[in-house]
Structures are given as C-alpha cells and as structure tokens.
Amino acid sequence: MDQNKKRIVYFSHGGGPLPLLGDPGHKAMIDFMRVLPEQITRPDLILVISAHWEEAMPTLLGSPNPPMFYDYYGFPPETYKVNYPAPGAPESAKKIAGMLMAAGIPSRIDPTRGYDHGHFIPLLMMYPEAEIPTLQLSLIRDLDPERHLQLGEALRPLLEENVLIIGSGFSFHNMSAFSWSPSSKPDPANDTFQDWLIEANTAPNYADTRRALLNWAQAPHARYCHPREEHLLPLLVCAGLAQSSAQILFDDLILGKRGLAFGW
User: What is the per-residue pLDDT for 201?
Assistant: First the structure.
C-alpha cells in the first residue's frame, strides 16, 4: 500500500443534489471530488461519517444493500431517482461496533436505513462505478465535541486496514449566509474562521489540535459559520482518528463561501 496516499479525508459535500445538477457554485468542488481518488489509496471499504445522520448513540448501517435516502426537498424529480448501488458491509459494521465497545462507547447497528446525500453525493463523483463496499456512521445527537473526538480515537484500529474514512460535512454551514447568485462578496468572518480551522488542524501535535477542536465554539466567528455544528463534527471524528497534522486538499468557494477539505 502506498503510505503517502490519504487514508482519512474531511470535505464539504455541497448543497443537497446541486453538485449532480452542475450548479456553477459547486464547480471547484466537483472538479476536486473527481480527482480526489488519485490522492487516495483505493480502499477495500469506505466508511462515511455524515453530517446528515444523528442518533442517541453512534449507529452504523447494517444492510447488505442499503437503499437510497433522499434527505433533501424541493429539487427536480430526477434528483429523487439518483442511485448509488454500492454494497453495504454488515460484517464490517459488527467489527467496528466491537471496536467502539472495546473503547467503552456503546453503539448500535441499523439494518434498514439508507445512504443519505452526505454519503452518496460525494461517492457518485469519486467512485461512480459503486463497486467498493461502503458503511455509514452516525453522529451523536448531543453534538458534544469531546464525544466526537473520542469516537474518532476509538476507530484508530481501522488504520491497520485498507479502509478510507470520509468525514462528510461542510466547513461553513450558515444556510442564511450562502450566496445563491453567480457573484459573491468577500466575507471576512468566514475567512477568519476558515483560517482558524487550518491552523488548528495543521498543528504539529495532536494535543494542540484536540484542545482547539474541543473548544471550537470559542474560535473567531465560530457561531456565525456554524449556528449548529453538525457539519463540523465529522471533522472532529477524523482528527481524533488521525492524531496527526492534516494537509489542506481544497480551499475554494462553494456557493460564495470558503469550503475546506483536509487529508491525513
């Protein structure tokens, strides 16, 4: 295995199905997603931590053939016919649940839930052949940063296997502040927070990264960029899993706001 290629990535998955509709505000992100597999070791399994799934405890998909879960509203009819028929991985779900239990983290397996758009939108662009088995792991509904850092830390045995871990969220997620027009104005508050995220995640030691992310809400303009933090928390899971300095893979505008991607 090429150890220079990324095993863990966090990125912004865009607005609903807009990337699949060729939305011009997503062009840079779409281009990035399509070339991202070149920077990643081709995995035997993909685990996605999606911002669009919250449960009382960490929950894994358990179906061998997960259905589609179209968790967006008001889009053209064709976006509700999109299919990503990648096989599930119920045995891997059981194995990961065992890892969590060994770390003192109770979890459960959901045998019926399907792939939400935080899962299937990026994978349709990255691996459109849908041949690699995939799993999805929920966030914890209380959105506690400590618990999500611990969740990533408990998953570190996955680094011994050929698994790609994806944190699928958005480094900026203030829905009322996105620009839906072709032109956009600079947003100093957005820029300041994104620069803080870069500094936090590229720190030379994990202790500094962990401390910063644990207290992310005290960062400059944190609550402007994340009125609710579900789209940031997949990053904390990835950071806890990696425990190393991240590399910036993407830093560009998505719907008029800077969106970041990190790789480890």
Answer: 98
Residue 149 tokens, joined: 């850092």
Residue-level pLDDT at 1: 34
Domain count, the chain: 1
Encoded tokens for 264: 């480890």
| Residue 2, pLDDT score | 46
Identity (one letter) of the amino acid at 19?
P
Are the CB atoms for 166 and 46 separated by under 8 Å? yes
Residue 2 lies in a domain: no
Q: Give the Cα separation of 186 and 257 in Å (integer).
A: 8
Give the model's pLDDT for residue 181. Answer: 65
pLDDT at 131: 98
- Say what angle helices 188-201 and 233-242 make with each other, to 10 degrees: 20
Measured between alpha carbons, how far apart are the two ends of the chain, in Å?
15
> What stretches in the chain show pLDDT beneath 70?
1-4, 180-183
Does 144 map to a domain?
yes
The reply to whether 3 falls in a domain is no
Give yes or no for a contact between 25 and 245, defined as CB atoms under 8 angstroms apart: no
Residue 250 lies in domain: 8-263
Q: What is the 3-state secondary structure (H, E, C) of 221-251?
A: CHHHHCCCHHHCHHHHHHHHHHCCCCEEEEE
This model's pTM is above 0.85: yes
Q: Residue 59 sits in a domain of what CATH number?
A: 3.40.830.10
Does residue 24 belong to any structural domain of this protein?
Answer: yes
